[in-house]
């Protein structure tokens, strides 16, 4: 690995806003040994987990930044990049580039309360989730196929905000916010907990006129989380989600257009209309319903089985066509945990499987000023994914924890085109793949641990890659395959906490995006990449919480990512670009912040992010600008009469008023790389909650 040097962070552990100040602030000092993570189904403390895992709490997601978006919180994590080219349009990358994702979330497996949110076709409608209903996030970096199936880009575990069974508490909250560029929103939450049941219902509305021309959006979300303890051995949960989302897509600009007026939408040319004229937008309605059953056979054996169904109605008037798509998904997952040996060498076996099926009807029409015109293509696609897995974990003498896991993964597609005669039917199957993972962790005293892991990854092309917006079915696109080696150390030295990981990931048959003049994309395999990186987090508590102190919590933190990603064996036409930096990956990203809270209820968060220049095309002829982003939030939170909680905040985004693009179009035809983000702007909000 190349020589890297950096220091780094630990993310804050969250607090419940409705708790009294002294109790709430004390929970902020929870140590690594007490932070339990669900990654790899071990349910161990982070100190005892042999994997690179970062967490985001409810405070990181909903208090640190005023904007109701997943983007700024995710971008405080080392090795994680999230884009939002226009409000509501998410892209997510974990230890990799976004060259596979012109839009949407791909090659990252996402679970919502243990239910697969990523469908069998490899697509995740993450923008259907309201950040205000999320209570916790775990990000597992590197290939995690030994437990979570196909994918080389990592795994995200989302948890909703809900009461606990037996809590005997009820809570209601209302909130409102307003901000620049017509931003406004409301949220309503009610939670109830009894001896054998806990129910949480959340409704949220958000709308914005957008910073750029043709970037208006609105979103309505309804979430349901209900858990019932049937008896001491059985628990049943119901998870429901409905989202109605619309966001306009202004389109990419070339450099001259970007510098002349970054707020304009993509203009018309002599050969193609512009975004405004074609009313380019996304209309997306998503419904998701899942059931979870947990059964404790004994103190040593328990099983969790989930099933789900999903429906998505998707429409996209684009520059050159009008796409209408309907997705229907079903699937399930079962996991059994068996504590095989309790004494001597404690050993746990985790085994199970996951199966998903997705049926998609995809039709393309001509686009006549935002209205569908002549039918161009009428396609049906069926995707099926399955995985079976097993993992042993043993606690050995001398503070060593050993993990060995393996999975069998299978992916298949069926494509049928009805708009031509005779009807074209093309199957596309991939050979089953076995993905092993081994890891060792050594505890060094009570406060430090070190780990090493070797894992393999496999990522079949998604439905949106085998049948992209360019309109043809690509039966020759091959899956990505890779091997990842990483070393890490994390721990606590008095007030100082740290988490440091170095890795090398070798990826073969890398999938990259290409575009035609109209902006429609297609995908090819591009040789291999060699990806080396160093990720670090650190935190220092300047003030340790004590009930009598005015300053209850003051700490500084830093998150740094250093990468050296290079193409290998990559021929682009007549040009060999081997040795070039991988497109879309900044060599250096540094996030630094300070958090402060007082006994009176005032709090403040300041966050600065530095993003170094990175290539926008595979030839490395065009690079992004350096971005320096400053955000600050001040607020007041107070518990009144032990039952009521009032919170008000004011947040400033891009306070340095940088002209930057939070979401470049990589390898874009005609140099249309740029999607300008808002300049300096403010957001304010208020929340009122009551317990009874």
Automatic annotation (TrEMBL):
Residues 257-655 form the TonB-dependent receptor-like beta-barrel domain. It comes from the Bacteria. Residues 46-155 form the TonB-dependent receptor plug domain. Keywords: Cell outer membrane, Membrane, Receptor, TonB box, Transmembrane, Transmembrane beta strand, Transport. It holds the Pfam family Plug. PANTHER family: TONB-DEPENDENT OUTER MEMBRANE RECEPTOR, TONB-DEPENDENT RECEPTOR YNCD-RELATED. This is TonB-dependent receptor.
């Amino acid at each position: 690995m190349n020589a890297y040097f950096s220091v780094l962070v630990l993310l804050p552990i969250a607090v419940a806003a409705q708790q009294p100040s002294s109790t709430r602030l004390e929970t902020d000092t929870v140590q690594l040994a007490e932070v339990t993570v669900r990654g790899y189904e071990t349910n161990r403390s982070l100190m005892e987990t042999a994997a690179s895992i970062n967490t985001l709490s409810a405070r990181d997601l909903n208090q640190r930044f005023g904007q109701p978006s997943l983007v700024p919180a995710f971008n405080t994590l080392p090795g994680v990049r999230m884009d939002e080219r226009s409000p509501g349009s998410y892209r997510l990358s974990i230890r990799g580039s976004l060259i596979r994702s012109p839009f949407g979330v791909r090659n990252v497996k996402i679970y919502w309360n243990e239910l697969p949110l990523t469908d069998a076709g490899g697509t995740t409608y993450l923008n259907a989730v309201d950040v205000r209903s999320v209570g916790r996030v775990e990000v597992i970096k590197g290939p995690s196929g030994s437990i979570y199936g196909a994918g080389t880009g990592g795994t995200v575990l989302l948890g909703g905000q809900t009461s606990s069974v037996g809590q005997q508490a009820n809570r209601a909250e209302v909130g409102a916010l307003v901000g620049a560029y017509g931003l406004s929103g409301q949220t309503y939450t009610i939670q109830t907990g009894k001896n054998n049941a806990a129910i949480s219902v959340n409704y949220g509305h958000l709308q914005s006129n957008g910073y750029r021309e043709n970037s208006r959006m609105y979103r309505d979300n309804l979430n349901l989380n209900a858990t019932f303890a049937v008896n001491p051995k059985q628990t049943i949960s119901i998870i429901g989600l409905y989202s109605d989302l619309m966001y306009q897509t202004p389109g990419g600009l070339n450099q001259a257009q970007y510098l002349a007026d970054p707020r304009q939408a993509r203009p018309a040319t002599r050969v193609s209309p512009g975004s405004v004229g074609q009313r380019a937008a996304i209309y997306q309605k998503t419904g998701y319903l899942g059931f979870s059953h947990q059964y404790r056979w004994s103190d040593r054996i328990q099983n969790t089985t989930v099933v789900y169904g999903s429906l998505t109605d998707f429409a996209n008037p684009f520059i050159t066509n009008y796409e209408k798509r309907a997705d229907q998904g079903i699937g399930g997952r079962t996991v059994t945990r068996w504590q095989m040996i309790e004494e001597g060498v404690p050993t746990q076996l985790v085994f199970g499987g996951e199966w998903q099926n997705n049926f998609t009807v995809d039709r393309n029409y001509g686009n006549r000023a935002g209205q569908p015109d002549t039918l161009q293509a009428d396609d049906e696609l069926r995707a099926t994914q399955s995985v079976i897995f097993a993992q042993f974990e043993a606690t050995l003498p001398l503070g060593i924890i050993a993990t060995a896991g393996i999975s069998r993964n299978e992916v298949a597609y069926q494509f049928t085109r009805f708009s031509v005669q005779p009807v074209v039917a093309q199957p596309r199957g991939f050979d089953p793949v076995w993905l092993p993972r081994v890891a060792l962790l050594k505890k060094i005293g009570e406060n430090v641990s070190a780990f090493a892991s070797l894992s393999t990854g496999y990522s079949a092309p998604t439905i949106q890659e085998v049948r992209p917006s360019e309109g043809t079915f690509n039966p020759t696109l091959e899956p990505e395959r890779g091997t990842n080696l990483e070393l890490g150390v994390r721990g606590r030295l008095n007030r100082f906490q740290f988490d440091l990981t170095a890795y090398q990931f070798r990826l073969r048959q890398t999938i990259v995006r290409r575009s035609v003049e109209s902006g429609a994309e297609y995908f090819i395999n591009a040789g291999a990449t060699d990806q080396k990186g160093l990720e670090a987090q650190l935190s220092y508590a300047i003030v340790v919480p004590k009930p009598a102190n005015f300053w209850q919590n003051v700490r500084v933190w830093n998150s740094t990512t250093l990468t050296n990603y290079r193409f290998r064996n990559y021929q682009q036409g007549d040009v060999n670009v081997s040795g070039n930096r991988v497109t879309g990956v900044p060599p250096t990203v540094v996030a630094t912040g300070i958090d402060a809270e007082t006994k009176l209820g005032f709090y403040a968060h300041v966050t600065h992010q530095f993003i170094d220049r990175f290539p926008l095309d595979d030839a490395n002829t065009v690079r992004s600008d350096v971005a320096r982003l400053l955000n600050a939030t001040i607020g007041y939170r107070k518990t009144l009469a032990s039952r009521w909680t009032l919170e008000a905040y004011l947040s400033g985004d891009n306070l340095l008023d940088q002209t930057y693009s939070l979401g470049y179009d990589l390898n874009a035809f005609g140099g249309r790389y740029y999607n300008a983000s808002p300049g300096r702007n403010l957001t304010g909000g208020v929340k009122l909650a009551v317990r009874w």
